[in-house]
Batch of 3 targets.
Target 1
Amino acid sequence: MTSDIIEIWAGVLGLAYLAALGLYFEMLSARKRSHVAASYGFDHRHVRSQAVKIR
């Protein structure tokens, strides 16, 4: 019973490690492609000005 729990936790931690590693490399490659794409929506929020309609 105890060895089963240890194996399950080892598998969960291994998958979490692989997911974190994948996210890290994805962030690195996005930063290399274009700096704006990696941080769009977080740091650089551009507001488009809209023309005001006067009746």
Note: Residues 37 and 48 are 18 Å apart (CA to CA).
Target 2
Amino acid sequence: MQNPFETGHIKNYLLLYASVVVIMVLFFIASTLFNDVKKIQKKTFDNNNTNFQKEKELKKIKDTETKKSGFKLMDKSY
């Protein structure tokens, strides 16, 4: 095997390295230019507490029902 520093092949290796770097930079630029960023809608919470109060009451009813019996049933049937 020949030494690339002595035969002058180092120029080819540097050109190969530079071309790979240029291709990587071009792909990066292309990906940033053609990438469409969608605007994300801001999500807001409903400040209406009526549903929360109803859920609390239902939970209290479920708790009292489970305390009456010795067994607790699953919330969902599978």
Note: Residues 62 and 68 are 10 Å apart (CA to CA).
Target 3
Amino acid sequence: MNLLSVQGTGAALTIALFLFCLFIVHAIKLAKIGWRTLFKKLPPQEPKKPEPKPEPVYFIVERKKKKAKTDYSEPKRIQFK
């Protein structure tokens, strides 16, 4: 007795085939990358140069200004026509 119908079996086999092909394609791509890196020679490392002293940082500081006095004149009357 079949547990799956014909359509279910076909769908399961299609998904399995897709995953198998996906795995094969990625395995081939990774194998190519690995094959290229086997024969690649790394450049010789240059000796590290001592870092130069950092230049001093100067901050420009503004002097504090006195607040303007808040003296208001009398309010003006506005007339609408």
Note: The chain is about 40% helix and 0% strand.
